[in-house]
Design a protein that fits this description.
Helices cover 52% and strands 13% of the residues. By secondary structure, the chain is α/β, with parallel strands linked by helices. The longest helix has 31 residues, at 256-286.
């Protein structure tokens, strides 16, 4: 009997968790496993800048909770889940701040948070929308193709988290190359697509029919299938909204497992490909001349000493500073060695202090010592024991071969 995608994911997790150079990727796989086991679907609305994503989201949720405007509004991912109405901002350094809804634009609008200078990771909203009551997570993403490069990067990154996608088009513009490129990338991650054409209230019936026919033809070619779910909608008048919602909810009830398994298989393939690229960088780093490795280890040592020195200057908010140091160390390792060094960033309510300074300084020292020890170990830096070197090389070769076999068996169509 063939292996299920859940079984394959668990097998990949075990392979990656056993190798220190791949533990960050193992955590990504673990999240896929948790999602499969919970059976909850993430539906993201994505598309080009100014197609009306936030307006349509408000119409779908039957609640004016997302700010809209004539300038780029969404500069950060906004997740909406079922619950008593509330809003909180999650920052990249782990800080979590509860806010009022009238403060949202401060954190997610391009005008007030240009290029995400506030370091927002995501905004999580709760609302008692009927559409969300069975555990569906709804996500409003930044639009691609605007002047603001950060928005496009965030949208591209978050599409990897989506299980199902509402891909939004608009009657005021033909499908363009930006949308085509984005769609090509998105189809490698999502398990289900719903295509919606917005602003249909601005054209006559004949023009709309012509445009919908054109869209369906283009989308069939782009998606390489005749099974295109295309909806004519208007966020302004509410036309077509119920039909779109009904299609999504029906699929989430009857085809949830199918959607999740398809989405997970695509994501798992991407994670394995990323791991193989990491192992390639790893090989290159291992084979650097000693002089160059010496320079890189000296550079990481200087960063560590600077971190230790700065840690003694802080008087409070130690947990947040520890998260920021993790982020800095991870970025430095990537800069020097081309490898992702994963740290878990602890989520913290704004202003929370859960340790005294002595404990904090000890954790900083442990963090830095652990990094240097791990880098020495996985890069075999100045390792003179031939048996240790051979064992490491054989382990990496076995891992690489196993991952390639699994990847090549995924998403076979």
């Amino acid at each position: 009997m063939s292996e299920t995608i859940l079984e394959t994911s668990k097998r990949v997790y075990r392979l990656l968790a056993e190798d220190e150079a791949c533990k960050g990727f193992a955590e990504h796989v673990d999240k896929l496993i948790s999602k499969l086991e919970s059976n909850n679907i993430t539906v993201s609305i994505i598309g080009q800048f100014k197609r009306g994503k936030s307006s349509l989201s408000n119409a779908i949720l039957e609640d004016e909770i997302l700010p809209v405007g004539i300038i780029p509004i969404t500069s950060a991912v906004t997740q909406v889940v079922y619950g008593e109405k509330s809003a909180e901002v999650h920052f990249k350094n782990g800080t979590v701040e509860a806010i009022d809804f009238d403060q949202l634009s401060t954190f997610i609008s391009e005008q007030e948070n240009a290029d995400n200078k506030l370091g927002v990771e995501s905004v999580i909203l709760k609302t008692p929308a009927e559409f969300l009551k069975d555990g569906l997570v709804y996500v409003d993403t930044p639009g691609v193709g605007s002047y603001h490069k950060n928005n496009t990067e965030v949208a591209y990154e978050y599409m990897k988290e989506s299980d199902a996608v509402i891909f939004l088009l608009s009657v005021d513009s033909p499908i363009n190359q930006i949308e085509i490129d984005f769609l090509y990338n998105t189809r490698d991650f999502a398990g289900k697509f719903y295509f919606a054409v917005n602003k249909t209230d601005t054209v006559g019936a004949e023009d709309l029919e012509s445009y919908m026919g054109y869209c369906k033809k283009v989308l069939r070619e782009l998606m390489n299938t005749d099974d295109i779910n295309l909806f004519a909608v208007s966020a302004k008048t509410g036309t077509g909204i119920e039909e779109l919602k009904e299609a999504i909810l029906t699929d989430c009830q009857k085809k949830a497992r199918e959607i999740l398994e398809s989405s997970t298989e695509k994501k798992l393939k991407d994670i394995i490909s990323g791991t193989l690229r990491q192992l390639d960088f790893y090989w290159k780093a291992m084979n650097l001349p000693y002089e160059e490795l010496d320079e890189k280890f000296e550079a990481i040592s200087e960063t560590i000493e600077d971190i230790k020195e700065k840690s003694r200057e802080f008087e409070a908010i130690f947990e947040i500073h520890l998260n920021e140091m993790k982020m800095r160390l991870s970025a430095k390792v990537y800069e020097l060695f081309g490898m992702e060094y994963h740290y878990t960033i602890k989520q913290l309510p704004m202003g929370m202090i859960t340790m005294d300074k002595a404990e904090y300084l000890k954790q900083v020292d442990d963090l830095c010592e652990d990094l240097m020890s791990t880098l020495n170990r996985i890069l075999l830096y100045r390792e003179e024991n031939a048996y240790t070197v051979v064992r490491r090389i054989n382990a990496i070769n076995r891992l690489t071969r196993s991952l390639r076999r699994i990847r090549d068996g995924l998403c076979q169509e």
